């Protein structure tokens, strides 16, 4: 059912809440999460970073920027099931990242 100004009332097709009508006031749904929002929620938590060339890093995400350059602490480099711990901080360049798993 479509309400005034074209807002869909009830449930969306993907199951998330759509605009709702409360006390005669139409409220908008929460905006979808963007990739940098997910990274923001992963700050100071362990993440897995898969790199080009088959390397991966596991560590605590301390910082990131808009280019997806990452700063990891307590990082471990994983190459073909061999784990190499790194002391201090590790800087990962964003353009060599395939994916980040929070």
Task: Count up the helices.
Answer: 1
Kindly state the number of beta strands: 8
Please trace the helix and strand order, writing H or E for each element. Answer: EEHEEEEEE
pLDDT averaged over residues = 82
Q: What is the terminal separation in angstroms?
A: 37 Å
Largest sheet, in brief, is:
6 strands, antiparallel
Low-pLDDT stretches are 1-12
Helix content: under 10%
Structural class by SSE content = mainly beta
Percent of sequence in beta strands:
35-45%
CATH topology of the largest domain: SH3 type barrels
Taken together, the total number of domains comes to 2
- Which of globular, elongated, flat, extended, rod-shaped describes the shape? elongated
Question: What attributes does this structure have?
Answer:
102 residues, mainly beta, SH3 type barrels, 2 domains, six-stranded antiparallel sheet, two-stranded antiparallel sheet, 1 helix, elongated, disordered N terminus
Structure, described:
The protein has one helix at residues 35-41; strands spanning 20-22, 25-27, 46-51, 56-64, 70-79, 82-85, 89-92, 97-101. It is built from one helix and eight strands; from the N terminus they run E-E-H-E-E-E-E-E-E. The strands form two sheets. Strands 3, 4, 5, 6, 7 and 8 form a six-stranded antiparallel β-sheet that branches. It is mostly beta strands and 102 residues long. Residues 1-12 have low confidence and may be disordered.
